[in-house]
Amino acid sequence: MLQVCYDVTDVVSPVVTNSSPEGNICDNDNDENDEVLDHFAPKAQILLVCCWRAMKEVSLLLGEITKRAPVKEKDQSYGLLSFEQFEEIGQLFTKILLTSKHRGAYELAHEGFVKLCHMLWRCEQGEIQRLPGVFLTKLLNDISSDNPTPWLCGTRRSAGLPFFFKAIVTTEPNTTGKCYFKSVMKELLKTAAKPVNTQDTNKDTTLPQVHARNILRALYKETKLGEDVFPYVADGVHVAVEGFLSEIWAVRNSSTLLFSALMNRIFGPQSVQEEKRRQG
């Protein structure tokens, strides 16, 4: 079953990870190419729908398997999933979330990844329990570096990257003291505050400062984190306002979105504010 899921993912990945997953068909003005466009456009849409639905089913199925299947103990014959298999599934979810450009694909992968992380954090086997932290630390170190992995999506507000972080930190149990969440917030704020090298303007959407702001925005908006984010609100506002002065458009844009999320977190949505005014 797991191998079938891996094979399906390999087949549909070229479509959902394409920079234009909605279909990239030649755009010319002559009548002949108009006929080609009319012929292939519906097929491109059908292909896309089939691919992201296949990815959806794989993600949800793997999430259910990891949630319900018994863990295989070391040197024991009973159990279904071993440490190596949990690691493989986690790496697959990571790949889907970090490379998919289709919103439906990475949003549904997030649902399956949440189930996996929830189970891993609470597993009694130490090496399995540490897997979410391993996944998180590896990616956080990559983003914090001066040259993040180039295949991280720089458009679509970092695509599935914020969903990856949300899945891990929102399922982290209180017994850990939320240490991973705290380290993530500190490291992201530190990365977002780094000065941007103006020579990197040709890759402005893949800058670590942009990714950090997009992830922070998602974490500040996440209701499951409740009051955990409040100690980091002031630093977030500082980072957002500083970004308004950047010469790079992607930094200014992500800073604006971050600032908006922080205002909603501090004062509540506009509808709530208007209701308070009417009652006051």
TrEMBL record:
GO cellular component: cytosol
Pfam families named among the record's database cross-references: DUF2428 (PF10350)
Cross-referenced InterPro entries: THADA/TRM732_DUF2428, tRNA_methyltransferase_THADA
GO biological process: tRNA methylation
Descriptive protein name: Uncharacterized protein
Organism field: Paramuricea clavata (Red gorgonian)
Organism phylogeny: Eukaryota, Metazoa, Cnidaria, Anthozoa, Octocorallia
